[in-house]
Automatic annotation (TrEMBL):
Taxonomic path: Bacteria, Bacillati, Actinomycetota, Actinomycetes, Kitasatosporales
Protein name: Nucleotidyltransferase family protein
InterPro entries according to UniProt: Mannose-1P_guanyltransferase, NTP_transferase_dom, Nucleotide-diphossugar_trans
Domain Nucleotidyl transferase: 14-240
Amino acid sequence: MTDPNAASRRPVQAVVLAGGQGSRLRPYTDDRPKPMVEIPGTGTPIIGHQLAWLAEEGVTDVVVSCGHLAEVLQKWLETADLPLSVTTVVETEPLGRGGGLKYAAAHLPHPDRAWYATNGDIWTRFSLRDMADFHTERDAVATLALARPRLPWGAVQTDGFGHITDFIEAPPSTFEINAGVYVFSPGFAAMLPERGDHERTTFPRLARERRLAGFPIPQGSYWRAIDTAKDLTEAARELAAQGR
């Protein structure tokens, strides 16, 4: 049965982590932060796509955590026609991923409500509303979107006698990975470290307590992390093939 109160519990606020150096994306990141890089053919930087997606999913307020070349991103956000309200914060000293997330979360407009978060280098489309409902149904403190990326290498299939039976180019991984998109309950921010990496502290503790959930991105939904120039090329080809 559909929960009639589910919509009222879905997040309307989000944090976008956009402070990374993007060193593996050089020279694209020599004059702009990683989320400002544009996948060829899309007509918008990665963060522009993310903000449009968040707005479509019911988000009204976003806090963007800036770092590398923060002024470039801030200028774009100030001049772009955005579908939601955006606030930027800049770390005055390196806080680590967990500390940076905690610092940004402190600027969310509704501290008593759940929130989304996403890494600033992710290009994806799936239902955040479904993910939020999944999070609520499992009474989780934190929920991670899970992706099954394609391996960058070819693979072989063999039979029981060791004969190769097939070659598979870039097969999907047999493992799911953290896709860099999250739903967090209101109390999660207090569990984050002031400095350091929450994926080595907060997440493992919540997993031991069975309060960390994993939401598989639906089959057929697009997901890619943009880490290298090769990722840009492949994302452009994949999105063009999908007519996006």
